[in-house]
Design a protein that fits this description.
single chain, 228 residues, Nucleotidyltransferase, domain 5, 40% helix
Length: 228
C-alpha cells in the first residue's frame, strides 16, 4: 500500500482570491513505513507574497523569483504522486483546494477526493475537544518538532508522517524486541532451577459423594472416554 504524506505552503488562504502555491513537500510510505523517497519543490507563484504570510513560512517574493512555476513542475509532481497512492494531508481541504486550483489552471483534472485522507479529521475523532493542530499532536505524541520555527512543506510532511503513524496506533513498540528484557530472560534461564518435591494431597471422600459421582457418570451419554 503506497501512501504520500503531503504538505504545501501558499501566498494566502484562498486560491479564488488569486493566491498560489509556493512550496510542496511529499514523503512516500509503503505499508506505513517511510521509504526515504521524497519530493520537495519551491515554486514561483508569479505574484507577490504578503508580509504576514512570509512571517509564517519565510518565503519572500524575492526568494521565489528564480524558482520554477507550477506549470514547469506539475509533470514531476504528478509522476511522484502516481495514480494509485493515497494522499495523507493535515487539513486536507486547504491543501487540495490549492492543488486542484493549480491543476485546473493548466488543464489537468482534479484529484478524486477518495484518494485523500485527512489526519485533522482523524485526530478530532480520536481526541474530541482536544487541540488537533500539527504542533499539538506532536506534543501529544512526544514528537520532536523543535526545528519547526517556521512552517516548511517537507519538514511538516516528515512530522505529519510520524503523527499519522501514532494516530493509527503507534509503531507497535510492544511487538519489537526489548533488548534488555531479552537479556534478562536469557540470564534467568541460565540459572539452576530448584525443584521442590511436594507430597501428593489426599482427600477423604464420603460414601454419599462416591454414590453421587457414580450416578452422574452413568447419566452421561456417549462420554468421550468411551469413544471408539
Amino acid at each position: 500500500m503506497r501512501e504520500i504524506v503531503l504538505d504545501t505552503e501558499t501566498t494566502g488562504m484562498d486560491p479564488f482570491d488569486g493566491h498560489r502555491l509556493v512550496e510542496i513537500g511529499c514523503l512516500e510510505l509503503e505499508n506505513h513505513i517511510a521509504t526515504g523517497r521524497t519530493y520537495h519543490q519551491y515554486i514561483n507563484p508569479e505574484r507577490d507574497v504578503p508580509a504576514e504570510v512570509v512571517a509564517v513560512h519565510g518565503l519572500t517574493t524575492e526568494r521565489l523569483a528564480n524558482e520554477p512555476t507550477f506549470s514547469e513542475i506539475v509533470g514531476d509532481f504528478l509522476d511522484f504522486l502516481g495514480t494509485d497512492s493515497t494522499l495523507i494531508i493535515h487539513n486536507a481541504e486547504f491543501d487540495m483546494k490549492f492543488i486542484n486550483a493549480e491543476l485546473k489552471m493548466f488543464g489537468f483534472p482534479s484529484f478524486d477526493p477518495k484518494r485523500v485522507f485527512d489526519t485533522l479529521m482523524m485526530a478530532r475523532k480520536k481526541f474530541p475537544g482536544s487541540p488537533a493542530s500539527l504542533d499539538a499532536l506532536c506534543r501529544r505524541f512526544q514528537i520532536d518538532n523543535s526545528n519547526r520555527t517556521l512552517h516548511g512543506a517537507l519538514l511538516d510532511s516528515e512530522l505529519l508522517a510520524e503523527v499519522y503513524l501514532e494516530l493509527l496506533g503507534g509503531r507497535q513498540r510492544g511487538l519489537g524486541i526489548d533488548v534488555e528484557a531479552k537479556k534478562l530472560d536469557t540470564e534467568q534461564s541460565a540459572l539452576p532451577i530448584e525443584r521442590t518435591f511436594r507430597e501428593p494431597r489426599i482427600f477423604d471422600v464420603s460414601q454419599a459423594e462416591e454414590t453421587a459421582h457414580k450416578e452422574m457418570l452413568e447419566s452421561l451419554k456417549d462420554p468421550i472416554w468411551k469413544a471408539s
